[in-house]
Amino acid sequence: MKTMKLKSLLLGLTFTLGLITFPLQAGVVVIGHVSNNASLDSKQIARIFLGKATKFPGGAKAAPVDQAPGSAARTDFYNKVVGKGEAKVKAYWNQRIFAGKGKGRPKEIGDGAAVKSWVSSHPKAIGYIDSSLVDDSVKVLFSAD
Hints:
Blueprint: H1 2-21, E1 28-32, H2 42-49, E2 63-67, H3 72-82, H4 86-98, E3 107-110, H5 112-121, E4 125-130, E5 139-143
Parallel strand pairs: 2-3, 2-4
Antiparallel strand pairs: 1-4, 1-5
């Protein structure tokens, strides 16, 4: 009887904690420098991050930056915006590099705070962060939510 009550209590606690932490998981947004006036859709962003486009729609050079491999924001970004999982993106870049077309590969900066800091100080930069990190130092160019 005590075991059953304990299991019920643990199950209820686990469920409650899940509800509390769920709202803390914000979505991923694509950010640019505050001076960036580009209007982008997911297809244009994917082309920039896959090295198929080197400029924003208005003609300004685009310099994409990535978060560290395995980060939650990176996984969300590539799945939701680019439409490929991280493993497929890695294979894509390996193939391009092998073929001598590896230019344009996004620079890996680190975590969301590092990407935000980099983008806020580089007018050509484009990156992605968890939406909870957005402040007035960067401009949201696209939201994956």
